[in-house]
């Protein structure tokens, strides 16, 4: 325990994995103290909190009527939830599992080896590895280790473990197809051309990342947090996890633990979608909780515009709805930098760009 205390004092935390594995750890060290209020949690059996499910096969190979029905459903889902579970999406179960295994392989490397992947805090690094969020800015340390790799427009990869590159290339490519199908259907749900979002957001050069999160068991899960409440900065994020739950989305003022059909993609809309739709569609607030039973691994795949795109509310939508733009136009790269600057610690980046 003395070692743990010392590591924290000097802010020399190398990974939450090694901290959590130290035998003496039976409570949450104060640097990680974060209280979760169980009264804010939703009852998953309440029909009000039934998570929407979107059958992707009806978008890709359903009849025109079936497709139209999903597109209509998406209007309500995107307005009220900003979140759904995509099923029958075509990405093989074996590939999803191989991706989780490859992440597990990476996090299982000795801290010394993982350190090779540490880098600065620029979002546009090829890859980075670390613990918490940003040790220089965090006021409360997070119960997670992470890596982030840029996979589009240029594909980069971690070079350890050996299988990582091949698996992540295929997984990134296949999950991108799902994301693009979703942006097509969302464009249509807004009464726009199917390629509207893709083209306006320059998604042929769109930023895509592969972000792995490792949440080891925590002795007091209600007194620590994996990732505190936030919205993602891109257009749409896909997420998969191992057999442990932990993702919570905010819905009707409550936190709902996401649980659903195995092999589905959890899909959340992100900030640029809210900006583009002038607030019609919602960038859902979400967070990652931890548990005291087993390690949870999640992989988030955020998809965004190209980094040089300027995003503003779509004039077509503002005109049709007779509403002035609610947000100022902003370059995507600057938006990301603003979100990740200390200024926005646990606050919404939207506040800065209200028109
Ligand atoms: C994220 C995120 C949630 C999770 O990486 O942005 O929200 O369940 N992750 O790991
Ligand atoms: Ni997120």
Automatic annotation (TrEMBL):
UniProt keyword annotations, A-Z: Iron, Metal-binding, Oxidoreductase, Vitamin C
PROSITE patterns: FE2OG_OXY
An MF annotation (GO) of this entry: oxidoreductase activity
All copies of domain Fe2OG dioxygenase, residue ranges: 205-305
Signal peptide: none
InterPro entries (UniProt xref): DIOX_N, IPNS-like_FE2OG_OXY, IPNS-like_sf, Oxoglu/Fe-dep_dioxygenase_dom, Plant_2OG-oxidoreductases
Family recorded in the similarity comment: Belongs to the iron/ascorbate-dependent oxidoreductase family.
PANTHER family: OXOGLUTARATE/IRON-DEPENDENT DIOXYGENASE
Name of the molecule in the record: Fe2OG dioxygenase domain-containing protein
Species whose genome carries this gene: Rubus argutus (Southern blackberry)
């Amino acid at each position: 325990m003395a070692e743990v205390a010392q590591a924290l004092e000097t802010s020399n935390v190398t990974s939450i994995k090694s901290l959590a594995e130290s035998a003496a750890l039976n409570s949450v060290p104060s640097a990680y103290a974060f209280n979760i209020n169980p009264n804010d949690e939703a009852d998953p059996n309440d029909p009000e909190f039934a998570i929407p499910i979107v059958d992707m096969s009806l978008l890709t190979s359903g009849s025109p009527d079936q497709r139209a029905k999903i597109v209509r459903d998406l209007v309500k889902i995107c307005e009220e939830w900003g979140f759904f579970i995509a099923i029958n999406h075509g990405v093989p179960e074996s590939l999803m599992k191989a991706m989780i295994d490859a992440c597990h392989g990476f996090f299982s490397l000795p801290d010394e080896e993982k350190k090779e992947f540490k880098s600065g805090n620029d979002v546009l690094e090829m890859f980075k590895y670390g613990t918490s969020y940003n040790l220089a800015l965090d006021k409360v340390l997070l119960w997670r280790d992470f890596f982030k790799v840029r996979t589009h427009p240029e594909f980069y990869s971690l070079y350890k473990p050996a299988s990582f590159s091949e698996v992540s290339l295929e997984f990134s490519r296949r999950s991108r197809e799902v994301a693009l199908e979703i942006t097509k259907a969302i464009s249509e749900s807004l009464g726009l051309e199917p390629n509207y979002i893709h083209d306006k957001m320059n998604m042929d050069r769109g930023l895509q990342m592969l972000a792995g999160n490792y949440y080891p068991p925590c002795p007091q899960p209600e007194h620590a947090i994996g990732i505190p409440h936030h919205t993602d900065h891109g257009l749409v994020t896909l997420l998969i996890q191992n057999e442990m739950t932990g993702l919570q989305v905010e819905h009707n003022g409550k936190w709902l633990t996401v649980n659903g059909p195995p092999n589905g993609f959890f899909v959340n809309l992100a900030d640029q979608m809210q900006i583009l739709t002038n607030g019609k569609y919602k960038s859902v607030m979400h967070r990652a909780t931890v548990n005291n039973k087993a390690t949870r691994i999640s992989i988030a795949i955020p998809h965004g515009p190209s980094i040089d795109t300027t995003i503003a509310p779509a004039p077509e939508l503002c005109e049709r709805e007779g509403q002035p733009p609610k947000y100022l136009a902003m370059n995507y790269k600057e938006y990301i930098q603003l979100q990740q600057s200390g200024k926005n610690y646990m606050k919404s980046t939207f506040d800065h760009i209200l028109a």
